Amino acid sequence: MKKILSLAVAAIMLLSCSIGYVSSAFIWSKDGTPSDWAEAEVSQALAYGLVPEHINSDYTEAITRSDFCDLIVNMIVRAKGGTIADIVAGYADKTDGISFPDTDSENVLAAAALGIVNGRASGTFDPDASITRQEAAKMLALAAKVMGADISADTVTFADSDSIYAWAVPFVSYVNSVGVMKGTSTTTPPNFSPVRTYSREQSILTVLRLFQMVLTANNTLDLVDYIPEITLSSDLHSEKINTTPNFDIPSDLTDMRPAFVLSPLLGDGGVLQAKMPVRLWGSYYDGETKVAVRVINTVTGDTDTYYTETKDSFFELYIKAYEYGGPYKIEYISEEGYVRTTTDVFFGEVVMCGGQSNMGWSIGQCYDGSTDKMLYQDVIDNSYNEAIRRLIVWPKSGDTPLDELSSSDASAWSFANPFNLKEYNAAAYFYARELNARYGIHVGIVSVCMGGTAIYTWFPKADGERLGFGAGKQPSVWYNTMVNPVRRMTARGTIWYQGEGHYDGYAELLAELITCWRREFDNKDMLFSVVQLPRYQNEYSYFLCREEDKKVCELVDNVTYSVNIDNGLYAENKATGDTLNDDGIHPYEKEPVGTRLAHATMEAFFGAKGIWRGPVMSEVSVKDGKVTVKFDNVGYGLTLKGLAGFEVSADGKKFSAAKPELVGKDTIVLTCDDVTAPTAVRYGYSNYSPFQEKPVTSCAQSVCVYNTKDGGTTVAYPAEQFLVENIGVK
């Protein structure tokens, strides 16, 4: 290795702060799939984010020395958190600088700086050369050492031990003893084949095993983000799928678009729910006929055909559960030979977004100081993404249920781009963007929301009346014209942002609404992801409503929520020119709202593991006038951003601000000179605190507790609010 004294570790600081990786376990490269014996572990490595994208291909090919460095460095970053520059900086006393004449790869330089890899005797690195098994063993063992492992091990004997170079013996012994690299034969003892080349899939497997082994030993594996593929699927209504022909499809079809009237939900460019049988429906212009529906993958040509017949001109059928992907075209064919075709259809996650104005609040209404400046201008400028699509049901109310959407009731499907993103529902867009980025799937947003609406207006009429909401309260006026006409849509889930006008008994009402919608959509397992309300000037009612949001999860299954306690808008900080925000009820920062809701969904329903939501109070005690609060789900440890948010009380009525001190990774001690014998403590209630930094410009300043990710280097999610009374009272 050629060392250049003038090249300091500062050069390594040019390394990217994040290393790109494929986050979806089910997206194999176009260049084939791994071998059968490797597929499960390669999939797991992808889900952990251990595989840089350029290595997610050609799995059986020999890996190069440079690519193996990419794998190793990415693993270390995932295991230790922070950036590789931070990690390398800790080795500054061991290396003055490193350079190779034949590569300037940042990851090669980083691996060399960490002492994991050497160059050739000539001073070159030889980046494109294949790596041997004993070279791989050395790099894996030294990477384990960087991650804090003791790599000493008794010498392991192989049938071909004489072929292993002396410098490699301790490293080969270590990786074999911990199960990271195994032998190459079934003999006793086995061969190790030290100079055999190492394939990409073998490299990925051993990196995964080392990663899991080291982090399990450190008790931190469960803190590392793990995002498996979405395995959630359903066979609901599969018995209604009919592929038995009831007529012979004519060979010559007449393209006649008006022959079939379809909902805009089933139009061109749409997204249909993947991994569930999907309902298709419509009406035929000429009364009774037999209908065939052909679903055609326009890439592979694979075709499935389904059959039904009209009744009073209406038809309905179910198609099988399709995997994510496309594009497809769907042909609706009558016995008379008329056909209507929809194109550019994909199977993905279909999400209905419901609620009030904060769900409908658009990206173009998220301002930065004044209405002349967009808070998310960079997002708008870089938003071109054909995998994120939206259809909006135009807001209108009515006393009579609308059976079907027409083009005057809803928009057509559109995909996200800089020309239309200002009109997208901000929270829903960021939710969809996160799912798309994490899983590489299409996401279809169906917007069904209206500002200023009470929850009872979203019930079917009979249910609203059953719950005691009479005609004077118009219990179904928004359900009638916005939800009823989309009830045939197959959607796995709903995201819900509502409740600003409710707090007394809201949990029971929302649980009833969820039950009603599941019945009306004929989808008993429909998922609900709820946005817990942010801060607002009405402290009392909003605090109680956030508690109600939590309570819903106890009343019905398949419901989750996200915490936005550090979000909100003080009225005095509204954007100049914003006439819809006099009271600050519409916070502009919708990116954390949508992203956190996606993360809550991923954890609750899609199997994501790691840290995806905030700390939760687990225990409160009082001693010598001080309150000790313990939290669960702290990640790599709690962190305090400021001191605001905690209050204590001697009688449970009058509360005073308490100063927090972090005394352990999961423990905070509170002191308050004004309350010497506290019996109650709360967090996240008051909008203002004497401990807030001045000037007060953000609701994030009114709370302070967060957990951490990435080895403790990244502030993650805010803690949930809580109220504990009668502490120590017998």
Spell out the blueprint of helices and strands.
Layout: H1 39-47, H2 65-80, H3 84-89, H4 106-113, H5 133-146, H6 169-177, H7 200-217, E1 254-255, E2 260-261, E3 271-273, E4 278-284, E5 290-297, E6 303-309, E7 314-319, E8 325-334, E9 338-355, H8 357-360, H9 377-381, E10 385-392, E11 414-416, H10 426-439, E12 443-449, H11 461-466, H12 477-483, E13 493-497, H13 506-520, E14 527-531, H14 539-555, E15 559-562, H15 591-605, E16 616-623, E17 626-632, E18 639-640, E19 646-649, E20 655-657, E21 659-664, E22 667-671, E23 680-683, E24 705-709, E25 714-718, E26 722-724
Parallel strand pairs: 1-9, 3-9, 9-12, 9-13, 10-12, 13-14, 14-15
Antiparallel strand pairs: 2-4, 4-7, 5-6, 5-8, 8-9, 10-11, 16-17, 17-22, 18-24, 19-20, 19-23, 21-22, 23-26, 24-25
Helix pairs in contact: 1-7, 2-4, 2-5, 2-7, 5-6, 10-15, 13-14
What gap, in angstroms, lies between the N and C termini?
A: 71 Å
Shape: globular
Summed over residues and divided by their number, the pLDDT gives a mean of 93
Q: What percent of residues adopt helix (DSSP H or I)?
A: 10-25%
Model regions low in confidence, pLDDT < 50 over at least 5 residues: 1-28
- What is the CA-atom radius of gyration, in angstroms? 29 Å
| Count, helices | 15
Measured by DSSP, the beta-strand proportion falls in 15-25%
